[in-house]
Design brief:
- The chain has about 280 residues and is α/β, with parallel strands linked by helices.
- The chain has one domain: Aldolase class I (TIM Barrel).
- It contains 12 helices and 7 strands.
- Strands 1-2-3-4-5-6-7 form a 7-stranded parallel beta sheet.
- Helix 4 links the parallel strand 3 and strand 4.
- Helix 8 packs antiparallel against helix 9.
- The longest helix is centred in the last third of the chain and has 16 residues.
Amino acid sequence: MATPFDADGAMDEAAALKLATYLLEHGSHGLVISGSTGEAPTLTDEEALLLVRAIRKEVGDDVLLICGTGTNYTRHSIELTRGAVEAGADAALIVTPYYNKPNPAGILAHFESIAAAVPGFPLIAYNIPSRVVVNVPPELLAELAKIDNVVAVKQANNDELQPIEGLEILAGNDDVFLKTLEIGGAGGICVASHLVGPQMREMWDAAQAGDLERAREIDSGLREVYAAMGVTTNPIPVKAALAMLGLIPTDTLRLPLVPADAEQRATVRAALESVDLTPVNS
């Protein structure tokens, strides 16, 4: 879920609650708070946990809430994951540590330490080498699967999307949501679902019913939206789209991210119109 900010860059809690409700009413089974799309690098721990508490209170106990708690310092990740447990999250999304480039033994120790600190609390590994430099290959994911409470992987390396024994597979990129369903994956943690949530939910429903032909038909109609969400760094395009549709008050981002330029906005607008979404703002 994108994190709405006001024009001055302060977190807009009221807008976040409205967006959370909208997403749940438009196809999403649950929400990820403080992930890549939520601008986790520029949220304080306090802001992330405040969002979890506020959204939990708003949407009730039955909605799946996941909090991004992975950092490149294991002790910090443990503290933030414990905070997420206390705030009411159902699971944590743990990105591979970035910048310090741990080797496989370090990655394994990182996840083992976090898991040991929150026994029984579900953890989702997040493999996104395009952002963190380090890739977690399938054989290392299989090792992570042996940790009791590592239950799934958000796979954002399209080239290595495959079943992993002991892990649920979640699409990390919109363009492989269908492929993930085709290989028996659980679903996806997506960006385009902010905009075309009902269609993506219908894809998921069709796949569960064994109607992959219908799922493929829907997917083919969403390709322009998927591409537009990658016209520049996420979440710049999706925030532009949400603001165009009046679903958030502004497309403010926190530096070093900046709003979409005119050319990028034109691409986003065209993608919205391709799925019969009419922008109400410029």
